[in-house]
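Person: I keep going back and forth on a fold encoding question. Show me how you would write down a chain together with its backbone fold. Please set it down just below, with no commentary around it:
Helper:
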Amino acid sequence: MAQTGRTTNGAATRPRRPGGSDVARLAGVSQKTVSRVINGEDYVSEDVRRRVLQAARDLGYRRNNVARALNSGRTNRIGVVTLGTALFGPSSLLIAVERAARSSGFTLALANTFEGDPGGIDDAIEALMQEGVDGIILSEPIDEGPQTISIDVPVLNLGQYPGLRATQLIAPSRDSELSGYAATKYLLSLGHEEIRHLAGPQRWWSARDRLEGWRRAMSEARLAQAPYLAGDWSPASGYSVGKVLAQDLDMTAVFAANDDMALGLIRALHEAGRDVPGDVSVIGLDDIPQAAFMNPPLTTIAQEFELVAAHGLRQLIALINGEDPGEFGDIEPYRLVERKSTAPLPPRSAALPN
């Protein structure tokens, strides 16, 4: 509890915030022990750790980050540059990053950018650097044109920045086309050859990657590729494209670049009298919460946001601490979730009338 004092003329002063010495006194330990517990250091028993944390809660103690930064040259804050959007992918990745940072004793400083503002990325980075962050996470999903970005603190790059320059840079060493490739390979494994792609908006790096993954899988299978049709990530755009695709009677499967567009696509197919998956198999990407409850439940590629965020944060914090982060590692950032919207292609003889 904060303590209130009096000036020499009897006026009340501002309440004094409890300090580490107050926590130490209440917990019956030394200030050094309090410091070790608050900073997450080892060599403290679980019983002592619980006593110190309980005393801190009882007193309303908060770490003085400004004083700690002056003493250590560190703020334990990581800046994040990301698009201001409620779309499932970017927002889920941001939540995963925040959870991973908090579990590591770091806080996040967030700077949103907005589509169509190429200077916004530079402005966001500059604002974060002025706050004195220890590292930067770049999670910008849109191509805003040529730009050169120079950053002099460790950087975790979860997006694509052709002009990025950083003294210490971590980027996931994975195939950026893997999700679209995996979705298309799954449809191929079911016997489908006439596979169409409902793409996302091509200013988005992920939409381009998923398109290229579809193309690569089709090319490896030596199959012709019909022109792709693009939506804007929304169910409404999936529905509009779906009305066009429903007229393609050769088509037996569709890879939709996200689950929301797949939802609209399936409705359009149903309205056109084409059964899913009897006539057309549909696979999406993201595994949004609604995917399991669609009609039919949607087969999809789930993105492992928690895994990517935790793995990247560990490496970024290692760099911040002056340690060797090692390789990003061979992680699997995607996972197939099989449901009822896909099925094997029936033999052609089964479709012929008796």
Q: What stands out?
A: Residues 2-14, 349-354 have pLDDT under 50 and may be disordered.
